[in-house]
Amino acid sequence: DPSLWRSAHKNRINMAFKGEDLLDSLSLPVQRMHLIQVDSVQRWMEDLKLMTDCECMCILQSKPISIEKDEQNELILSSQHSTCDNLQLLLKRAWIISTELTRIAQKLEKNRWQRVHSLTVRVNCHVHSMVTEYSACARSSPEERHQLEKLLIDKCSEFTAFTERCLQTEDEEILKSMKSCVNETLTTVAQYFGQLIELVLTQEAQTLLRQIELSGSLCVTESAVSGLFSLAQEGAHLCRIIAKEGGVVALFKICRQDCFRCLYPQTLRTLASICCVEEGMHQLEKVDGILCLADILTDTSHSEATHAEAAAVIAQITSPHLTFTEHLSSFLENMEEIVTALVKLCQEASSGEVFLLASAALANITFFDTMACEILLQLNAMKILLAACSDRHIVDTPYSRDQVVTILANMSVLDQCASEIIQGNGVQLLMEMLFEKSSSGNAAEVAACERVQQKSAVTLARLSRDPEVADTAIKLSCIPRLIKLCRSPTERNNSDSVLVACLAALRRLAVMSPEGLEDSDFQQLVKPRLVDSFLLCTNMEESFV
C-alpha cells in the first residue's frame, strides 16, 4: 500500500493539474476526500455519534456530570481532544447543520410541515451541541463569538417555536402567510450560522499564526504548522482565510530561518496547499516566495524531502488551470535555475514520489513559458526523462508517465527535439504509451491512462514531421495501433480526445507511408475531413461476432 506521504503528495498535486485543452490536463488522484465522498456506511457510522436523540439533548444540554469541581475538571481534561480533533468535530457538526438547513428548505417548498418542524428541532440541538463542544475546548472566548453564538441559539429557538405553531394551524391561508416568515427566519439562521463558522475558523487561523510569530520554540512552531496544514486540507475557503490572515508570510518566514530546517518539508507542504487560491499566490509574490523556493531548490545541503516539497509548491503555483499566475513576473527571473534544479531532482530521485513531484513541476513550467522547453533541451532533460521511464521503481504509475509525456509533447514543437527522441529510444516509449491501461480500474487512474494515450499520439503527430522519426514509428507498427485506437472505443476508454489525437497522428504517418494502410482504413480514417472521420469512429459499434 502507498505511504501516507505519497498519498498526500498525489492528493495535493491534483488541485493543480486540471487543464481542459488537448495537452494541459495533468490531473492526478482526487484531492483530499471530503465528507460526502466516502462509503455510505462509513459516513453513517461517523455521523451516528453526532446524531443524539433530540429529547435527550434538550434535557441534558449543559448539565454537569459531577457536582465535585475537582472531579469535573479531571473528567474534562481526560476527554480533551487535540486542536485538530476539536476542529474536525466542529466541521462535522457544521456539515450536518448545513445539510439539515438545506433539507428544511426543500421540505418547506413542499409544505411538509411535520418534517420541517422535526428537522428544525434537530438543527436546534446540533447548534447547541456545536456551541457547547467548541466552547469547552476553545483556547479563547472573544466577545464577538459569544454574541454570534447567542444570536444563533436565540434565532434557532425562535425558529423551532415558530414551526411548532405552524403544525398547530390547519388553515391553508394562514400557513401560506406564515411560510414567508419561516423562509425569512431560515435565511437568518443560515446567515448567523455562516458568520459564526467563518469567525471561528478565522480565529483558529489567527491563533496558530500568532504561535508561529511569537514562539521561537521548535515544538510549538511544528504544532502550529501542522494545525495550519489540517485547516488548509478542508478546502479552498479555509486556504483563503489563512492567506488573508498572513499565513503565507508566516510560513515563508520559517523557510528563511536555519534553526527551523527540519520543519521545511512540512512548512512547504502547507504552502503548496494554501497557494491553490489567488490570495495565497498574491501573498507569495509579495514576500519574494519564488526567490526563496529557488534558493531552497538550488541549495544542495537540503534534504531530498525538502527539495521535493519545494517542487510541489512550484507545481502548484505554475498550474495550467490557474488563471491568476500572470503576476508571477519574478518566476521568469529565476526560471533557469529552478528548471535546472528540477531536472537534477528528476535525475537523482530515490523514489517515484520525488520524481512525480519534480516532473509535475517541469510539466507545468513547459506550459508556463516556451523558453522552458529550450532550457530543458540544453540540459539534456529528454535523455534524463527517457532513462527514468525505463526504471519501473521511479516511473511507477500512469501519473508519472503522464508528466513525462506532457513534457515530451511540449518539447516536440522544437525542431532539435526529434534527434534527441531517436537517440533516447523515445519513439519506442511513445509506442508503449499508446497501450497504457489501468490495472486497478480506479477512475482517476483510468483518466491518467487516457491522457497518456492522448499525449503520446500528439507527440508522435508533431515529431513525425521529421522523416526519420516517422520511419521509426512505422517500423514499430504504430499505424496498426493507431487504427485500433480509432476503431475500438474500449481501447481508448471511449475518450474523444484520444480519438482526435490518434486520427491526427495516423494522418501524419499515412503521408509518409500510405502503403501501411488498407484501403478501407484510408477511405474512412485518412481521406475524409477530420471531423467526418471523428463522427464515423464515435458512431462505431464493436462487433462481437
TrEMBL record:
<dbReference type="GO" id="GO:0008093">
    <property type="term" value="F:cytoskeletal anchor activity"/>
</dbReference>
<dbReference type="InterPro" id="IPR016024">
    <property type="entry name" value="ARM-type_fold"/>
</dbReference>
<dbReference type="GO" id="GO:0000132">
    <property type="term" value="P:establishment of mitotic spindle orientation"/>
</dbReference>
<dbReference type="GO" id="GO:0009786">
    <property type="term" value="P:regulation of asymmetric cell division"/>
</dbReference>
<dbReference type="GO" id="GO:0045176">
    <property type="term" value="P:apical protein localization"/>
</dbReference>
<dbReference type="Pfam" id="PF19427">
    <property type="entry name" value="Insc_C"/>
</dbReference>
<dbReference type="InterPro" id="IPR031938">
    <property type="entry name" value="INSC_LBD"/>
</dbReference>
<dbReference type="GO" id="GO:0008356">
    <property type="term" value="P:asymmetric cell division"/>
</dbReference>
<feature type="domain" description="Protein inscuteable homologue LGN-binding">
    <location>
        <begin position="36"/>
        <end position="81"/>
    </location>
</feature>
<dbReference type="Pfam" id="PF16748">
    <property type="entry name" value="INSC_LBD"/>
</dbReference>
<dbReference type="InterPro" id="IPR039921">
    <property type="entry name" value="Inscuteable"/>
</dbReference>
<dbReference type="InterPro" id="IPR038205">
    <property type="entry name" value="INSC_LBD_sf"/>
</dbReference>
<feature type="domain" description="Protein inscuteable homologue C-terminal">
    <location>
        <begin position="93"/>
        <end position="545"/>
    </location>
</feature>
<protein>
    <submittedName>
        <fullName>INSC protein</fullName>
    </submittedName>
</protein>
<dbReference type="InterPro" id="IPR000225">
    <property type="entry name" value="Armadillo"/>
</dbReference>
<dbReference type="GO" id="GO:0045179">
    <property type="term" value="C:apical cortex"/>
</dbReference>
<dbReference type="InterPro" id="IPR011989">
    <property type="entry name" value="ARM-like"/>
</dbReference>
<dbReference type="InterPro" id="IPR045789">
    <property type="entry name" value="Insc_C"/>
</dbReference>
